[in-house]
Amino acid sequence: MTYPFATDANIDHPTLPLNMSPPKSSGIDLSDDDLDCLSISELEKRALGRMDKQTGDYYNEGADSGVTLLDNIMAYQMYRIRPRIMRDVSSIDSSVVVFGHRSSAPFGIAPAAMQKLAHPDGELATARACARRGIVMGLSSFSTTALEDVRQASGRVPNALQLYLFEDRSHSRDLIARAKMAGYKAVILTVDTPVLGRRRLEIRNQFRLPSHLEIANFASHATESEVESSSTEEGNNLPDGYATRAPQITFHTHGPNPTLEWKETMKWLKHEASPMQVWLKGILTPEDASLAVEHGADGIIVSNHGGRQLDGALATLDALPDIVAVVDRRIPVHVDGGIRHGSDIFKALALGADFCWVGRPALWGLAYKGQVGVELCLRLLIDEFRRCMGLSGVTEVKQIGPDYLCKVGRSGFVSRL
Ligand SMILES: Cc1cc2nc3c(=O)[nH]c(=O)nc-3n(C[C@H](O)[C@H](O)[C@H](O)COP(=O)(O)O)c2cc1C
Ligand SMILES: CCCCC(=O)C(=O)O
């Protein structure tokens, strides 16, 4: 019998459903396993040893006390799977369509800023790994690689550009035009950063981008006044090797934008971005999900920014069911935050998500071994998800629903949804 999990034979054909072909004679192929790293939590440990303190702290921490960061992860532990048996799972198709592309599994890599902090190949390594595994990548506005280069590295697999809509819209207008030219399918506006969350380690470390790196999408795009103000505020006690040069478009200065509002912002963005899709990332309530539909969003991502913005905000998995109910299939609902195992993806889908995004685990893969490390991260998650499907008696993603879950109550009592 062949085994229905990710094999090297199917990764080079990311657009094909992974339905166990071509057959392998000996069942599970262990030759690809990294014996030092058989889970995402092992990947996290390996990665930490390879990042400098500033980077490790920046990647891993949450805002304030990290309550929401932890809640995102723990929310998955409050559900258990109800597996069904004797259903012939010899052929499993874990693929779904996202941005018009058949993704090999129902998750993508979430946009995360400044990936060259983790590895010199940065976003290119992530894009190449995603392309090899047929997985969609979201690119941060604050990437250390230009969006055109990432697009090229992604090959046939589409990308979405995450947007921080700056108060000075000229930068954003340029960026959107470039994304369109380069062939991005969607822009994802992050809406949970009206102000920056307070990340204590980032503050204590006086986070700076090392001088050999740049925020590539804006490298030559600072306005004169921005260059001037950057040169006056700089030159102060920076550690060796840290930048004092212009342009100063940094996530601290330009990321947060308190002026976003529904009507004008959405109208402007939909006009500028067309024909790319416009998604909103950072929705946590059914009220805002309804407004997103009303204002023409093509999709939403239920997210609390990986616990990096409002500490004390509810876990994304807990926010999901009410949002799914109110959206009622009018637009796709995605979710991110706290996904550390393929079975977490299964649980999110069972609660109604159409697709998941994974943040830190890919960064850990990148820090561990560049492209190979990101591929390892993807392979672990894909394999775990497919194994979870097989062990639950499911052969297609669309079969996954609330019948497959039960909830652990406060008393420890387990009940049907
Ligand atoms: C280091 C780091 C940088 C991030 N940068 C961005 C960003 O530039 N834009 C954005 O919308 N979200 C950003 N995020 C949030 C992720 O897109 C995603 O919402 C979050 O990481 C999901 O949680 P997880 O890390 O638990 O999977 C970042 C997250 C991390 C950890
Ligand atoms: C405005 C924040 C930009 C980077 C980011 O999203 C993060 O560090 O979480």
UniProtKB/TrEMBL annotation:
GO terms for molecular function: FMN binding; oxidoreductase activity. It holds the Pfam family FMN_dh. The active site is at H305. Residues 32-410 form the FMN hydroxy acid dehydrogenase domain. Keywords: Flavoprotein, FMN, Oxidoreductase. It comes from the Eukaryota. FMN binds at residues 111-113, 140, 162, 190, 281, 303, 336-340, 359-360. GO terms for cellular component: cytoplasm. Gene3D superfamilies: Aldolase class I. InterPro entries: Aldolase_TIM, Alpha-hydoxy_acid_DH_FMN, FMN-dep_DH, FMN_HAD, FMN_hydac_DH_AS. Glyoxylate binds at Y58, Y164, R199, H305, R308. Its cofactor is FMN. Belongs to the FMN-dependent alpha-hydroxy acid dehydrogenase family. This is Oxidase FUB9. It comes from Knufia peltigerae.
